[in-house]
Amino acid sequence: MEFDLIDRIRRHTDVHRDDVLTGIGDDAAVVAVPTGRELAIAVDTLVEGVHFPVGTAPADIGWKALAVNLSDLAAMGATPAWALLALTLPTPDEAFVDGLARGFAELATPFRLALIGGDTTRGPLTVTVAVHGFTAPDGALLRSGARPGDVVMVTGTLGDAAAGLRCLAEADASPYAALVDRLNRPTPRVAAGQALRGVATACIDISDGLVADLGHICAESGVGADIDAAMLPRSAAMLAHFHDADALQFALGGGDDYELCFTVPADRAGDVAADLARLGCGAARIGRVVEGSGVRVTDTSGESVMLARTGWNHFAA
Amino acid sequence: MEFDLIDRIRRHTDVHRDDVLTGIGDDAAVVAVPTGRELAIAVDTLVEGVHFPVGTAPADIGWKALAVNLSDLAAMGATPAWALLALTLPTPDEAFVDGLARGFAELATPFRLALIGGDTTRGPLTVTVAVHGFTAPDGALLRSGARPGDVVMVTGTLGDAAAGLRCLAEADASPYAALVDRLNRPTPRVAAGQALRGVATACIDISDGLVADLGHICAESGVGADIDAAMLPRSAAMLAHFHDADALQFALGGGDDYELCFTVPADRAGDVAADLARLGCGAARIGRVVEGSGVRVTDTSGESVMLARTGWNHFAA
Q1: What is the spatial distance between Cα A256 and Cα A67, in angstroms, rounded to a whole number?
Q2: At what angle do helices A160-167 and A244-253 cross, to 10 degrees?
Q3: Which of A239, A270, B237, B296 fits as disulfide partner to B178, beta carbons 3.0 to 4.6 Å?
Q4: Under DSSP, is residue A310 helix (H, G, I), strand (E, B) or coil?
Q5: What was the pLDDT predicted at B309?
Q6: Sign of dihedral through CA atoms B257, B258, B262, B268?
Q7: Strand intervals (E) in chain B
Q8: How far apart are alpha carbons B7 and B97 in whole angstroms?
Q9: What is the reported pLDDT for A307?
């Protein structure tokens, strides 16, 4: 394409890596994987009006498009290395592209993630990112290793992004900036995922909601999970603005938090929480892995909590 | 996503590879690159109404989305290994997805290309594929090595896809099936690209049109190119339906042919043509690399040929 938007993006994301032998500008990138490392690869698409509201700042879109992908690498315990960016947009709007590239670079740079390729096309606003990261042989965190007796844990706090989305409907969303920021600028838990290698028996990132995503661990591991609603970590920002019942639903069913949900043997849970705390990442025990199937949530009186909506289904949205 | 279209696609594309350690179904795929191999990576997006006409058969869309990416690997001389597929579609139409997956698999299977990951989202019809292939160390074909005196060559015939696109405007396009097929089902020149390793000094695939893409080789190599219009390989199918002037414009400026354009030292051109012929791939000399810059096309009387349109600019389309 003559109007080379990808070159414009490259100028914002100037991470040099010795393992990038040919970067943007040829028919394909050429890279070298270090000896003794396996490669984790993920891809995710964000569509305007489906995965981010119309009117979202370009820099937030760029950040989020990379964040949701780095979150997949985090859930594998992988170390980020390279990304591809395929950007479809209605007009060749240079200011928009610059903003998007800035947000992308803000997140890429601290991880030393190099943008090695891309494509720009005309059409409805859609951003697809593919990321590549390294893992040690047999070192990737999978969804399939949870065992009855393991403790279920999550990083950070849950429900903030869903609460933030609700706040955007307000005439003045500024009092809820912290929640909206959690929606627009999720923090991929990359260091936490790496710290969980060799310890967590299963791991997933929470993109569709806790119950839905923990459900994937249960299905892949052939187990069930009992969750204690009172143990779910919820932010002061969310609790200041929402009733407890709403906040609980956000924490259980809200998507887009991009925290990690993982299982560890019960005798390792304390050490894991301490290790993650040293990384500046909270980690809370929220329940246990049990025989059976599916996720059951109970409140302090032992009653089952019903989920208003099981995860985000973008086809139903 | 609960409605797991990617799982549906996986069932159609069942290529087993030992180097895929974790395939579709976790947060990321995990793969192993063979020792002593570098990795070539490319990504391309097709948007409905921009890169393929509305109403294109789903199987043709699936084929083409992979073909344009394999063509990038071909232009690097790489051996295909793995792909990711990010599919955005307006409704979860299972018949459409099955058709698209069938076309994708038809092309993937003979190359033993494994689908290792993907994403399905709701939105305007858009298909993004990322492909990964292997090259020997320092063995990738780049755009930057053309030298004055080299011969410029192309595989196959030029202009058929653009001619096919023109034919689709006809009330009955069936007489032009061979041309329309070249538009909808391009053949990535993977074996030819591999045969050019160590011989071609520069290589690119023709996606935007010969003059535009050869122009990239000239710019990256710091050279110019003189092309003899009479030498351009044009198919009998195209010449049967179009005047010579139109056919020439298609051959020079039409995109979507996905043939390879490459440069070789003059004393190797004969051997290269013979090697490619053994692979069932035609290869024609069309001109020479010269000092200077830019692409100049001349007819038999030595007059410069003007290009009606320089390549496809999808933002201008």
Answers
A1: 10
A2: 120
A3: B237
A4: coil
A5: 60
A6: negative
A7: 20-22, 29-31, 38-47, 79-89, 114-122, 126-135, 151-155, 202-205, 224-228, 260-264, 283-290, 294-298
A8: 11
A9: 82
Provide the chain B residues 198-237 that lie in CB contact (below 8 A) with chain A. Answer: 203-205, 208, 212, 220
Give yes or no for A18 touching B (CB within 8 A). Answer: no
Average pLDDT, integer, range B61-65: 97
Torsion of CA A219, A223, A226, A231, to 10 degrees: -70
Query: How far from A222 is each of A148, A218, A289, B25, B135, CA to CA, in Å?
Result: 10, 6, 10, 15, 40
C-alpha distance from residue B128 to each of A76, A88, B26, B109, B255 (Å): 23, 10, 20, 19, 19
What is the residue extent of each domain of chain B?
Answer: 5-135, 151-298
Grouped pLDDT means (10 residues each) for chain A, 317 residues: 66 89 93 95 96 94 98 98 96 92 95 94 96 94 97 98 90 86 96 97 97 97 97 96 94 95 98 97 98 95 80 43
Measured CA distances, A26 to A16, A93, B140, B213, B243 (Å)? 17, 24, 10, 11, 35
Domains A5-135 and A151-298 share a fold: no
Residue contacts between A and B (CB atoms, under 8 Å): 218
Alpha carbons A317 and A51: distance in angstroms, whole number? 10
Strand ordering across the sheet containing A224-228 = A202-205, A260-264, A151-155, A283-290, A224-228, A294-298
**Lowest-pLDDT range of B32-36, B293-297, B310-314:** B310-314
**Hey, are the CB atoms on A126 and B123 less than 8 Å from each other?**
yes
Give B316's pLDDT tier (boundaries 50, 70, 90): very low
Q: Which residues of A touch B123 (CB under 8 A)?
A: 47-50, 124, 126
CATH architecture of A5-135: 2-Layer Sandwich (3.30)
Q: What's the whole-number mean pLDDT along residues B184-202? A: 97
Task: Please count the CA atoms within 13 angstroms of the CA of B196 that sit on its side-chain side.
Answer: 35
**Identity of residue B45:** T
Per the CB < 8 A criterion, the answer to whether A82 and A20 are in contact is: yes
Which pLDDT value is given to residue A309? 60
Neighbours of A308 (CB within 10 A): 12
Residues 132-191 of B with CB under 8 A from A: 132-133, 135, 140, 142-144
C-alpha A142: how far from chain center: 15
SS3 content of chain A, % helix, strand, coil (to 5): 35, 25, 40
Half-sphere exposure of B55 (CA within 13 A, CB side): 3
Beta carbons within 10 angstroms of residue B43's beta carbon: 26
- Flag whether residue A90 sits within 8 Å of chain B, measured between CB atoms: no
Q: Hey, what amino acid is at A166? A: R
CA distance linking residue A251 with residue A226, whole number of Å: 15
Q: Which residues of A touch B217 (CB under 8 A)?
A: none
pLDDT at B9: 81
A 94-123 → B contacts, CB under 8 A:
116-119, 121-123
Which H/E stretch holds residue A151? strand A151-155
* A267 DSSP 8-state letter: G
* CATH number corresponding to A151-298: 3.90.650.10
Q: Is the pLDDT of residue B138 over 80?
A: yes
- State the average pLDDT over residues B200-227: 97
| Residue A152 near residue A289 (C-beta atoms within 8 A) | yes
B228 has binding-site annotation: no
